Amino acid sequence: MADLEVGEPTYQQDRRILKIILVWLLGGIAYICVYYSIFDQVPFYWFHYDKHRHDSFPSAAHNSEPFYDSSPSTANNPEIYYDPPHSTVHESKTLHNSPPYTTHDSEILHDFPSSATYNSESPSPSQTPNDASPESPKHPLSHLHQIYVVNAYYVRFYTPSCFSSYYLSANMSTSVEPGITNSSNVNPNSTQTTEKSVKLSISSENITICYQRIHLEHLQFYEELSKKGITIKIRHEFWDLINVVSIEFEEKHLDIVKSIKGVKSIQRVYNHRIIPRAIESPFVESKIINKKRDDNESLEKREWIPDAKIEFAPGNDVNSIHNLTGVKLARQYYGLTGKEIKVGVLDSGIDYTHPALGGCFGEGCRVRYGYDFVDDDHDPGDDCIGHGTHVAGIIGGDDRRPEGTGFTGVAPDVIFGAYKVVKCNGYAPNDIILKGMQRAKDDGMDIINLSLSGDGWAESPTSEMADILAKLGIVVVAANGNYGTKGLWESGVPAIGLDAISVSSVENTHLTVHKAFVTSNRSIEIDYITKLARPFPLYKVKVAVYSNNKCLKDFSVYESKILVIDLANLPKNCTLASSKIQKYVSGIFALESNSSLPLYPMLTLPTQFTVPYATLIPKQFHQLVALAAEFPELELDFSDTYTYLIPNEFGKVVSPFASWGLTPELDIKELSAPGGMIFSLYPLKYGGYSMMSGTSMSTPYVTGSAALLLEKHGYQGPRASLLIRQVLMNYAIPTVDVKNEFASVLQQGAGLINIYNSASVSTLITPVKLALNDTLNGNFSWRPLWIYNGGNNPRNYTLSNLPVVSVDGYVNGTRSASYKRMKFNNQVIADVEFHESFVTVEPGENKSVLIKITPPKVSGTSRWFYSGFILVESRNDGVNLTVPYAGYASAVRELPMMPLPTYPRLLTSSLKVVPENASATFSMYGYDVPIVQYVLSTPTRYLRVDILDENKSVLFLYAKANYVSKSRLTKGIPLFFYWDGSNGYKSLKSNKSYEIVPDGIYHIRLSALKLLTDPEKDESWERWISPEIITYYYDKVINWFPGHMAKGLRVISERLSTVDVIVEARDSRISFVIGKFEEITRFKERIIVYNKCDLAEENTQGTIKGAFKKYRNQDVIFTNANMDKNVKKIVDFAANKAKENPEKYPFVMVMVVGMPNVGKSSLINSMRRIGVHKGKAARTGALPGVTRSVSGTTIKVLENPTVYLIDTPGVMIPHIPDPVRSLKVALTGGIRDHLSDEEVMADYLLWRLNHFGNFSYVEKFKLPGPTDDIYSLLPAIAKHIGALHKYGEYNLQQSAMFFIKQYRNGKYGRYTLDDVSPEGLKSYFENDDDPGREIMMSRNQEKKMKWAAATEKRLERWKKKGFVVGKGKK
């Protein structure tokens, strides 16, 4: 509260008020004058001129500094960042695949991993495997990566963007001739746009008004946030193409932000990230690793120079790839080079210093435009990843200088815009990508290349902006994705958008290799492939094959040899020390995958790994292994330093890694281009050239091709993008799969591009594709196919059907199948009828031909997706045009949304599956919450979670998500979400807007909306209902810190100077609860003794000992003081100090410390019995706190050498913040029973026994069967022991205490209450074994402890009444 001003005269107050009013009034007038003087002269966007722009056109994506702070002062307040849920947007709680303990206060939904990725496999040359993603939470569910920007959100407004309001309405409102969709009736040889398009005729005044209106809306939004006390940081503002702001604020404010007038939706800002492309078998990502090296071990530096000149052998054409696509012919016949075409590359930047890219940046350079949105500066260089440089090389590299390689990209004269949006760790927030797209548009780019892809639907922000850009005439080319091995429904965003050109991949016809020869027979060649396209700097080297039968560690047997190693089939968990390899091995020939296709090196090698490394064509790998087995002294000659291009037997095959469609709306994506085994540019500091594969490589090939076509046809205006797509798709050529059968349209689209035919276009066909939907929603009547003859003479055309193989992407009819488990059938084909199969079209005529496609008839549980091509052959010149078609042969609403009955399923906190007909009890605290493990077999437009009551009636909606992708499992692990017990979408740790449901029986219902159905109809949903969930909430924090503990703690501290050894006694059953004394005694030599080991699980002792040794280099002793077990080890430890240094230690003083009731006094008596053969020296008892103070005298426990002991009171933690941990302490007797609820303790004990599968209480107390209801058990116990009240009622409290004491005495077996698995111990030592965490006290608690030590009277009062902190008495 602010200090009050006392005694100020009234007139002074009035003067001050008037002065404030006058200042505000003058300020308002000045603002209005300045505002209108500015806006009367220039459009609004000039007012927000981007200071980083180096040209005159302003960016409509304004990058604002964090100027708006509604809190009184945040200058010194650090931003609060915590691990967010994996969410995308929408109107309720997140469905989590994040750990159960994460705090979720969000209304945002959908955290099914949307791993938007680069569509190539190559990491940064300097990137280690750990660089790939942010640190994950340390929890059993921590395999899931964080893919969202912390506390960053898009806010979308109802007001349309400026171009949505004016530009598009003006340009897209004209009618189109029936039948002509996706294209226009234009003369392809004309440089003018169709007359059906109109030029932009919007006045600058209208644009200004629009910008003013949107800017005012944003300011009003910020003002509302300010009024509500919400601090924000503005990341970016968009008003031109989309009306969105991206801002940062704390997640707990989501409800408030969503409620502000004008806000349409909120969506998380997510990260794009680089991951390896998917192939038939996973890559070997970490088989060769850096391990700790002995200091005496020498490591010879090998000189494998990555920038050595690349020289292709005579007769080898480095640009042979252009023969495959017709690019070579188009350039020869039409002289096309992409001249003056501007291409924007949104990527990791471009190494513009590369000679093949012009060697400079800025005006007059080939890389003329650009910006670094990562570092917010003008230098868009590619300084760490190399991906963007490789992409740019494919588009338009030109290394035809005398000393160059002769390499040329598709369009070697294009002008580049380099927009760096990806960080060196491979991540790019998608609002940065949006800003890059906006900037590319502002810079006047004709084409935008997006070699990145992510999960989602066409409604994603990047897809939406891509569609808008395409409608403006900018050609947007995007990668379709690299998840071909994951099955159907894998087309990615933004390629999945309606108007972007989506690109799949085919394999290159030639491989870039180097040759080694068998010395004794040079006719035997070994073709090896290096990442940086350089030969091994070796001469003659012998060959050795690594044995895959065992994991060998001694590499000296391979000294000075080429090591041939099958990394894909090494023994599980076998890793190879890079230092050992580098010390002995001269080079490595590896097989990284079980794929039959040749692959270039993709293994993420350790930093400083300098051994030459290459992959082999699989057939040659096995040939070399056989030769080495036959000839033990086999030697290879590496003297040939030429680079060769050899035929690839899989050339033109659709790349297995290319993602499969269809889209969730059953749309067909566009076409294919070379993307497998592509040789292109790389940053100079990493060698200048490299090999890469992925749709990231096929996408720029199409981008370069589009540049050639724009140059040839001169398409302009809003329909330019549609026309480029049309000429590319019409002339694409259907290609084959690895089985040499025509590949499905779902994977190849319209087929492989043919740029010569697209450039020579004389015929156009509309529509460019036929998405036939399913049997319920499709149109299977006669439909027109429009053929336009743009030539000067009549043309004759023949129409025919080319059916291709149908695919079933589901296992057992319910679960989405990986590629290996997909079914293929070339007999399940559509029937295509032509009203006329031969037609003549006059010059300039647009003629319709009626066709009818009937889906194949299928039965049973098969899920067949059929496809094919309508072939239109021009009889005049023999050129084939194609129109792809695809559909689903049944009703798509019958597709399984979830793989029932396998998934979903309910898990306990220990990740054990709860059977469908069983029930599970949860305390709803910490980890102990119900977890649902689920898989989506099919994308869904709407996913929701409802909480049901005992009768399975809906109580409330808990969470929902819109536009959810099919699940892509990581190493076969399904996704997760959990219920935290709230009756809304606020978590337990949020503000109190939502309540916790009472104890009871509940069910979780997961519902997925089937494709193409009405959500209002019950039959449109596929539902799963969980087994019974029984909840009991234990949130009572037990606090017990009697006065004798405070006094004892103070005296312990004072006497430490006389103590030589600390013996810390712990209870073996609760390994992780430590006392306040650790903070004081941490600098003394210490022995940890786990007492009462006879009551804990015996098989955990070795694990605990090993963990203490590994993480703390601390020895641990397990004892049972009552039986003198292992106690002699403690005495011997103390005695050895005196024996080793008798002058320093004439006697040894040992202090025994520990929490209450861990058996310290029993331990002392046991040591005395063993050492001096005498009886009790310390008082013992069954109650905690028996030892009331530090002993005034010492206790001798050994004569020679002399060892004394000091007993201490059990020191309790002043405040245990975790109620469940409090229960464990109480259950083991560490806290007086009356301070906790005996019945709750008994209930917890019953839950633990059931959890352990111990139902011995059933027979003991004559129950009909196991129960999880404590009030069914306690009366039975009361009856058994005769615990009755005066009037015959059962004494439940006495029954509960009997039940608890039976456990404490070991009557129910030996159980450890803490998680002492290797994982649990690792988490404890890395996260929780910090005295500051466990014994941290609030200021109030600290004051109370000091008061307790200072005042005897207060001590006595607290001793009688109990000491309760937080909820209790003050």
* First-last Cα distance: 23 Å
Please, how many helices? 30
Largest sheet: 8 strands, mixed
Specify Rg, calculated over alpha carbons: 37 Å
Alpha-beta classification: alpha/beta
Averaged pLDDT, please? Answer: 76
Number of strands: 54
Domain C5a peptidase/Subtilisin-like protease SBT2-like Fn3-like: 771-885
GO molecular function, one term: GTPase activity
Domain Peptidase S8/S53: 338-750
Pfam families: fn3_5, MMR_HSR1, Peptidase_S8
How is this structure best described in words?
With 1370 residues, this protein is an alpha/beta fold. It is built from 30 helices and 54 strands. The strands form eleven sheets. Strands 1, 2, 3, 4, 5, 6, 11 and 13 form an eight-stranded mixed beta sheet that branches. A seven-stranded parallel beta sheet has the order 9-10-8-12-14-15-25, with helices on both faces. β53 (1195-1198) and β54 form a beta hairpin. This is 1299_t:CDS:1. Residues 771-885 form the C5a peptidase/Subtilisin-like protease SBT2-like Fn3-like domain. Keywords: GTP-binding, Hydrolase, Membrane, Nucleotide-binding, Protease, Serine protease, Signal, Transmembrane, Transmembrane helix. One of its GO terms (molecular function) is GTPase activity. Residues 1150-1213 form the G domain.
